Amino acid sequence: MKIFIRVSISQRVKCPSILQVHVSWEKATPTDGARSKKRAYDDESAAALVAPSATQLGETICAGCWTDTPPSHWRGVSPLRPRPSQSPPALFPKANVGGERLLAHAEQSSARLDRALLLCSACGERFSSTQLARCPFLSGTQVTMPSFPTEAGMDTLACSHFSASCTPNGIPEKEPCTSPEKERKWIRPDIPSKCTWELGKSPSESPHRHVARSETPKIMPDILKKIGDTPLVRINKIGKLFGLKCELLAKCEFFNAGGSVKDRISLRMVEDAERDGILKPGDTIIEPTSGNTGIGLALAAAVKGYRCIIVMPEKMSMEKVDVLRALGAEIVRTPTTARFDSPESHVGVAWRLKNEIPNSHILDQYRNASNPLAHYDSTAEEILQQCDGHVDMIVAGAGTGGTITGIARKLKEKCPECKIIGVDPEGSILAEPEGLNNTDSTTYEVEGIGYDFIPTVLDRSLVDKWYKCNDEESFACARMLIRDEGLLCGGSSGSAMSVAVKAAKELKEGQRCVVILPDSVRNYMSKFLNDKWMTQKGFMKEEDDIINKPWWWHLKVQELCLSAPLTVLPSVTCEKTIEILREKGFDQVPVVDESGWILGMVTLGNMLSSLLAGKVQPSDQVSKVIYKQFKKIRLQDNLGKLSHILEIDHFALVVHEQIQYHSNGQSSKKQMVFGVVTAIDLLNFVTAQERRRKAT
């Protein structure tokens, strides 16, 4: 097969992975600010159209349309038009490409052209135009390439980027998308990795720039120099408590300047982008993140002077939000339940902002090679130096996968017998084999690990064994690390340690297990560190002898005199819903479907703020402003639990479960709305009962 290849004149690229495509050009006296151009073709299919320019940066033309006017899929580059005396050659019949056009577009930024970013659409590798291109898929900052079907008699394209999961043009296969999906400009965070790393391969063959560790100065020029060189601490009590014979060590990543392991990759991504000419003074950094990468990027942006926008799901703690705001970052929250590939997800919203804001960049921790490289070059080297090269097991949680991938690659090179243990929360799909991920849980409270997609930078083949962890064990172990070892760590640190005490049972005396503790308790003061939050979530049981509880504490929620529930269908307009709420005197109402299934809540305040901000119109359906982050309570729960909820939230949705049988004989549980309870309802009940008690 022969494909179109985009090249720059200064590079004269001939990729060894494809059949040779002949490209020729001629220089002439500039006319109207442009040099004359000449097309070159081989005798079977179109090769490429290149034009030497004063900047020596090649230009390309859309070979699929040969239009005299800029087609809609070109962005910021004027296509080269055929001369009037020339007509499009017969080499471009639409039948040759199965009715599909090869669409390519390049974006030229205001940066110097010799520092322009080139991005491989297949593997995500970034190159500057001064480097020798190594990839046939080099294009501008974004590319859209429909499938180029193989035809009889065409040669096979032997490109190293191809795999069974890729179409002939190198783009990962996926289901045919709808028109709105085609219009989205984004790069998936789960593109299969095409990294060429292999165990035993010489480091000199690496295409990446590696950074050697430097000695820490006595006086640091800025706080960014306090990233890395974190302490390795012996765990004394917990190992004995669980009967471990090996030495248990904790790599305390919360000693980094921003308080987490993500400071390492944030600084590395920023510095690499600056070195490659991608980031320039005054540019904007945008990043979808669970919070810690955002804090690291905001820290770097504050020191270096960049604008920073962080997009994060609603479930992330308010402490993270407060820290980000203090660092000057702008914050956008997205629904926790949104799939990663939906436009409403933190990934989708980040790409929309990137397309709307000039000179903005998504450093993209999910695909950026700087993510695992930061740990390969620094974290792993520190562990080896601190352990004198003797490590028998590494236990690390997996989120983007950069930490476990970078550390595992270096440890596999230096300590081949070292076991790599991966930690994945229940509700995530990162673990292997796939059967481990079968669970009824779709959400989890622990932050910073787990995803509903496989990030590009995660190399799961390096992990010797995966363990699943749950919220209750994670938070209990995190509190144990704080109480028994004095390590002020976060919830995902508890996840890693709860797995380590299981996995390390196979190690013998004299062997060593290192556990990565990713972040600090600072981000979770109102969550797992709070007894009421733990009780409310069901992770702790109240002890009756601890507190003198009031008489009503153990009464059931069903004792409350709740009125018949008011609900609305998702098709009701915002205007009508506001009218209903005002008429009935309610501040919130559940939204249910025709069968009574709970879809979410809408509040009067949320609707009014959305209308005033112009996010919705009065005629829009109420489904556009559904709020899914609310607390539920069952009829058999006690009023004490309800009081804990109402200390934090304005209301709770009272639900009861219904077993529904289907035509095939199978049954399923559905949660139905029984009512909405507020603090006023609880207070009215208690005061009314108090009067009756006194009267008797």
TrEMBL record:
Name the coenzymes or cofactors required.
pyridoxal 5'-phosphate
* Locations listed in the record: Cytoplasm; Nucleus
Primary subcellular site in the record, as a coarse category:
cytoplasm
Q: Which reaction does it catalyse?
A: L-homocysteine + L-serine = L,L-cystathionine + H2O
Keyword Cytoplasm part of the UniProt annotation: yes
Q: Which Pfam families match?
A: CBS, PALP
Q: Name one GO molecular function term.
A: cystathionine beta-synthase activity
Sorted alphabetically, which InterPro entries does this protein's record hold? CBS_C (IPR046353), CBS_dom (IPR000644), CBS_dom_sf (IPR046342), Cys_Synth/Cystath_Beta-Synth (IPR050214), Cysta_beta_synth (IPR005857), P-phosphate_BS (IPR001216), TrpB-like_PALP (IPR001926), TrpB-like_PALP_sf (IPR036052)
List UniProt keywords, sorted A-Z: Amino-acid biosynthesis, CBS domain, Cysteine biosynthesis, Cytoplasm, Heme, Iron, Isopeptide bond, Lyase, Metal-binding, Nucleus, Phosphoprotein, Pyridoxal phosphate, Ubl conjugation
Q: What is its EC number?
A: 4.2.1.22
Looking at the keywords, is Nucleus present? yes
Job of this protein? Hydro-lyase catalyzing the first step of the transsulfuration pathway, where the hydroxyl group of L-serine is displaced by L-homocysteine in a beta-replacement reaction to form L-cystathionine, the precursor of L-cysteine. This catabolic route allows the elimination of L-methionine and the toxic metabolite L-homocysteine. Also involved in the production of hydrogen sulfide, a gasotransmitter with signaling and cytoprotective effects on neurons.
Q: Which family does it belong to?
A: Belongs to the cysteine synthase/cystathionine beta-synthase family.
Subunit record text: Homotetramer.
UniProt name for this protein: Cystathionine beta-synthase
